[in-house]
Each structure stands twice: as C-alpha cells, then as structure tokens.
C-alpha cells in the first residue's frame, strides 16, 4: 500500500497529454465535496486565528448550483469510434438502428426479436448530449483546539445535494417504429433503450426488457449527503507575514453506490469509497495597512480512495473464434442474447452488468488564491487544478464461460438455447459471421472477451478559474460574513464535465 500511494503521487505526469475517449459505459464525475474554491473563498480569513483569540469556532453554509455544458463531448464518450470502419466519421455521439445489418448501426432484428423477420422495420438515429446539474448546500465547521495544543484544529465538511443527469436524446431525421410479434402496439428504438420492450406473449419470440445501461429522454437524479470529510490539522506556523498549516483527513462515504440502471448514472458522493488524505496550505501577506491587506495562498488537498464494489455494465469484444484480433462490438450490451439451455432472449446488458471492484486511487484538489481585504470587503480570485488517476477495475465474481452467446435472428425461443453455432436452428451467432462450422463453433462469450476498459474512467485534469466577493462583520461579538462566488471549469478531455458553478455563503464565528 505504501508503494501504491508513493507511485500515485506522481500520477500528474499521466495527465499531461489529453485525448478523447469513446465506447465507454461508465463515467465517474468530480464529487461535489472536492471543491476548494467553493469552500475557501471569503471564509479563509476565519481559518487562522491567534491561539488566544476570543472566538475559536466557525461555521459556514454554502448554497450552490452547477451545470455542465460540454454535452457533445460527453456524448462522444458514450458514443462510438468508427474510424476503423470509416475514417471520415471518427467518434460520434450517435446511436442508430436500421432494418438492414451493418457494421455502423444495430440491426433491428437484434434489438426486437422477430424469428420470422416479419417485424424487421425498426429504424432511428439519436444524438446523445448528456449534461449534469447539481444543487444543494455544503456545510463546513471549523473548531480550534488550542486548549489541547496551540494551533491544533478540527474541521468537518459535508454537502447535501441533488445530482441530476440528463442524456438529452434528440431524433435525427425520421424514425420508423415496429411491433412485437402478437402484440399490436408500435414501439420505437427509444422504447427499447429505456427498457419498455418486453414480449411474454409470442412463444417463438420471448424477450426480456433491458434492465441496465438504459437510455431515455428524462433526467434522473440522486440526492442526499454526499460524503463527510473529517480533518485534524495543526497551524504550525503563525507569523505576521506567513502562516501555514497541515492536516490529515478521513473521507466517510454516505453517498450512492452505483447500481448500473442508467448509462449516464447520477451519483452523489464518491460512489461509496472510503478515503484518507492530507492537506497543506500556505498564506503569504503581500501587503498590509491597518486591517487592510493583500494575501496570496496556495492550498493543496490529496486523497486516496480505497477499493469498493459498484455495479457497472461491461462491454464485449466480438467472440467470433475466426477473428485474428479482438474487435470491440459497438454498444454490444444492447444486442439480444441467450443463455445455454434456457428459453428466450434478453439484452446482453442484463448479464454484462456485474459487481465490479473499483479502486479510484488518487485525487488532488489545489488552488492558488489571491485575497484583497479592504474595509472588511473581501475579494478572492484564483485558479483551481483538479487531478485524478486511472481507475483500477476487476470483476468481483468469476464470469461463467460457455453460458451466454448472442442470439441468432432466426432462433425460435421455444427451443433451448445453444451456444454452439447451428445453421439449421440458428440458436447462436456472432453478427451472422461467416466461416463458422455448423454444430462445432462455440461462440459463447468467454471471460477473455469482456472489455473491462469500457467501465474505467480515465485519469483527468481539469482547470477552474473562480472569483468571489464577501463582507465580514469582524467587530461584532460573534463575527459574521456573507458572500457570493462563481467559477468555470475547463475539461482537458471528454472524460470530465466542463461547466459553471455559482454559490452564496453565510458564516458565523465565536
């Protein structure tokens, strides 16, 4: 563990070169609690008090709202890279279905099971433009413990928040609906993606609805206390022109554990991972006259998040045994499949959504802050750097080989499914691949065809600029403060949300 932590301290070097990602099934977004800019501004002058100060406690409440706006980039993250098929297309935030089989779209009979081909009419293309909004309030409480040791302090922070994710699906051109066998009702591709297509009527076309990695046009939310950060620190240096402190922290998870139901899943908190950390802040007084001053501060906060178990939908490589190399099946989790010896078909996502051991590893949140204090007005302006390393993931449970395979479009669901490719009954197939020997080719999805890379959120680097204005009533028996602030965060690649945040704050000291 010691070696791991030391190595993770140099993970910054892995963030120097950015790229765009695609073919992903999960995105870990920046947790609400990791926001030094929102925490520090205006309140920072209350964090340093002389050991003999009359008041030795301080609390602030910070209502906030934030929204991402790099919707197309996040759509590309969940979209597909078609460069190998058509170099002119590249990465697209588009998901499509068509009656004819193609390497660029889903074939409708692999989405709606129609053994005789009579319902082979589904056609549509959708843009995916995901965005996230979050609002709530964070609470920070700081208590000096000078009676125990000069400069010792305790601090606890937590936000209560609602995180709302919206894929914002829009239709490109026209779409064609389809009916299920023996069910006189029209269904769209979006009905399938949102888990609203199920056939329990037609014996030859039994089909389960999609249960995981779903997509629809509605926002989905997650709310509650988004973790608790507990710190013990020491203000080891307190001079007229320089002050500094160290702290150690414990992150207690109180947020949501991902359950895999939606592709762009809303999660408040750090997905229920425990963490430890350490922080440092250094304040330099650049100019002072009476109670007016200009300060420059550098504040850094490092966390290491431990392994936890989350549900995520794993992608797959094409299990065709005749292929010379592994090829990602674009959106393979949405293709219909069967289980050996069982009747009926189901979307692969229903079995590809697995318990995943996830180790987020290192996070770093740092700011460089300039404070102007004049006649009790406090103006802060600064820069925030946020870094994470690549997640480390593995299956919690062993994958059962020879159990599941993609279903042939002509498979009659009254028959027991067979993972051996069979031309006559067409129980299993791999995108109707040619060159398979009937009755001998095992096209079951083996463990080595699982694409765990599809559920890994890559390392990220984001840059934020911020400003805040506040006023402090320092001569009151119980000093108070009010403030407002805003920030804009720039993402260096499409594995991170980019957008703005605004906040207000009120505080009281004693």
Describe the model.
The structure is a single chain. This protein has helices at 2-8, 36-40, 71-78, 189-193, 349-352; strands spanning 57-68, 80-81, 91-92, 94-98, 106-107, 124-128, 131-144, 152-166, 169-171, 178-180, 183-187, 220-225, 228-238, 242-252, 275-289, 292-305, 308-313, 315-316, 336-339, 346-347, 353-359, 361-374, 377-388, 392-395, 404-406, 450-451, 460-473, 480-491, 499-509. It has 510 residues and is mainly beta. A hairpin with a 7-residue loop joins strand 7 (131-144) and strand 8 (152-166).
What secondary-structure arrangement, pairings included, does this model have?
Blueprint: H1 2-8, H2 36-40, E1 57-68, H3 71-78, E2 80-81, E3 91-92, E4 94-98, E5 106-107, E6 124-128, E7 131-144, E8 152-166, E9 169-171, E10 178-180, E11 183-187, H4 189-193, E12 220-225, E13 228-238, E14 242-252, E15 275-289, E16 292-305, E17 308-313, E18 315-316, E19 336-339, E20 346-347, H5 349-352, E21 353-359, E22 361-374, E23 377-388, E24 392-395, E25 404-406, E26 450-451, E27 460-473, E28 480-491, E29 499-509
Parallel strand pairs: 4-5
Antiparallel strand pairs: 1-7, 1-29, 2-3, 4-6, 6-9, 7-8, 8-12, 8-13, 10-11, 13-14, 14-15, 15-16, 16-22, 17-21, 18-26, 19-20, 19-25, 21-24, 22-23, 23-27, 27-28, 28-29
């Amino acid at each position: 563990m010691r070696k791991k932590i030391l190595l993770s301290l140099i993970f910054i070097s892995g963030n120097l070169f950015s790229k765009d990602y695609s073919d992903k099934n999960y995105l870990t977004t920046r947790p609400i609690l990791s926001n030094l800019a929102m925490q520090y501004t205006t309140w920072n002058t209350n964090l340093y008090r002389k050991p003999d100060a009359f008041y030795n406690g301080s609390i602030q409440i910070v209502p906030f709202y934030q929204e991402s706006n790099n919707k197309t980039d996040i759509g590309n993250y969940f979209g597909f890279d078609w460069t190998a098929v058509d170099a002119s297309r590249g990465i697209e935030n588009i998901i499509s279905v068509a009656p004819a089989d193609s390497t660029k779209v889903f074939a409708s009979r692999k989405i709606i099971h129609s053994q005789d081909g009579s319902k082979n009419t589904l056609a549509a293309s959708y843009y995916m433009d995901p965005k996230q909004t979050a609002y709530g309030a964070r609470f920070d409480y700081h208590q000096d413990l000078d009676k125990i040791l000069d400069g010792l302090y305790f601090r606890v922070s937590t936000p209560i928040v609602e995180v709302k994710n919206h894929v914002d699906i829009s239709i490109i051109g026209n779409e064609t609906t389809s009916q299920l066998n023996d069910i006189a009702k029209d269904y769209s591709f979006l009905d399938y993606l949102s888990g609203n297509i199920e056939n329990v009527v037609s014996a030859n076309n039994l089909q389960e609805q999609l249960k995981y990695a779903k997509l629809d046009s509605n926002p989905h939310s997650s709310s509650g206390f988004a973790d608790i950060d507990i710190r013990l620190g020491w203000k080891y240096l307190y001079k007229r022109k320089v002050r500094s402190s160290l702290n150690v922290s414990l992150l207690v998870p109180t947020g949501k554990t991902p359950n895999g139901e939606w592709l762009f899943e809303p999660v408040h908190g750090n997905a229920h991972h425990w963490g430890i950390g350490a922080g440092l802040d250094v304040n330099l007084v650049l100019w002072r006259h009476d109670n007016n001053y200009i300060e420059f501060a550098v504040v850094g906060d490092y966390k290491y998040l431990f392994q936890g178990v989350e549900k995520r939908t794993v992608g797959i490589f094409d299990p065709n045994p005749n292929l010379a190399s592994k090829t990602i099946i674009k959106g393979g989790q949405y293709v219909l499949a069967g289980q050996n010896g069982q009747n009926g078909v189901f979307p692969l996502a229903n079995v590809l959504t697995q318990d995943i051991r996830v180790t987020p590893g290192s996070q770093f949140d740092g700011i460089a802050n300039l404070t102007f204090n004049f006649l009790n007005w406090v103006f802060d302006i600064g820069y925030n750097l946020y870094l994470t390393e690549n997640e480390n993931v593995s299956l919690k449970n062993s994958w059962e080989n020879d159990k599941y395979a993609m279903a042939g479009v002509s498979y009659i669901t009254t028959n027991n499914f067979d993972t051996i490719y069979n031309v006559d009954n067409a129980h299993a197939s791999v995108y109707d691949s040619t060159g398979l020997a009937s009755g001998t080719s095992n096209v079951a999805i083996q463990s080595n065809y699982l694409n765990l890379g599809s559920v890994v959120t890559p390392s990220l680097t984001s840059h934020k600029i911020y400003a805040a204005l506040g006023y402090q009533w320092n001569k009151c028996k119980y000093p108070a403060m009010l403030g407002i602030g805003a920030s804009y965060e720039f993402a260096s690649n499409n594995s991170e949300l980019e957008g703005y945040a605004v906040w207000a704050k009120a505080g009281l000291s004693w």
